[in-house]
Amino acid sequence: MSGRGRRRILTPDEVRIWRAVADTVTPLPGRAVEGTGDEVETPPAEPAPAPPPPAIPPARPSKTPMPARPLPDLRSGVTPGLDKRSSERMKRGEMEIDGRLDLHGMTQDVAHAALVGFVSRAYDGGRRCLLVITGKGYREGTGVLRANVPRWLNQSPCRERILGFSTARPQHGGEGALYVLIKRRR
């Protein structure tokens, strides 16, 4: 045996033979007598239990679920993940409008809360196409709500629930309104 593995236990007959042979020899000078063969090999001792790993504080659940991967920002008229035909139908105002939200006269805080609630309810209710009316603003250029609504749609929780948005057709408000396409629930 090479000494690396476990030694086997001798049978009683082998122990008797070993004793007979061991009685006929004398140890070399300065050497101690090893065993007589009477020993019964004991199984190896149980290893000491490993110290417990350092305590890790339990993870606190997040208040809002994190998306698996960040969603790209949407731009008006650009609808990644939507087939070309549906995208064109939305841009041309040919999709049936399932809900309308008019933000005229609202402050930014009130309008933002109304938009988030409207998109969430539409998503939960299985609605598909929404019309969000921002108005064009009082001053030349762009109104505050008209500029902020696309940014709000790209923020959580709206972004996880929409496929895209596009400027509305003139009969639905033109540059002062947006079509918002809601994802289907899975």
Automatic annotation (TrEMBL):
<dbReference type="InterPro" id="IPR036063">
    <property type="entry name" value="Smr_dom_sf"/>
</dbReference>
<dbReference type="Pfam" id="PF01713">
    <property type="entry name" value="Smr"/>
</dbReference>
<feature type="compositionally biased region" description="Basic and acidic residues">
    <location>
        <begin position="82"/>
        <end position="91"/>
    </location>
</feature>
<dbReference type="InterPro" id="IPR002625">
    <property type="entry name" value="Smr_dom"/>
</dbReference>
<feature type="domain" description="Smr">
    <location>
        <begin position="101"/>
        <end position="183"/>
    </location>
</feature>
<feature type="compositionally biased region" description="Pro residues">
    <location>
        <begin position="44"/>
        <end position="60"/>
    </location>
</feature>
<protein>
    <recommendedName>
        <fullName>Smr domain-containing protein</fullName>
    </recommendedName>
</protein>
<feature type="region of interest" description="Disordered">
    <location>
        <begin position="23"/>
        <end position="91"/>
    </location>
</feature>
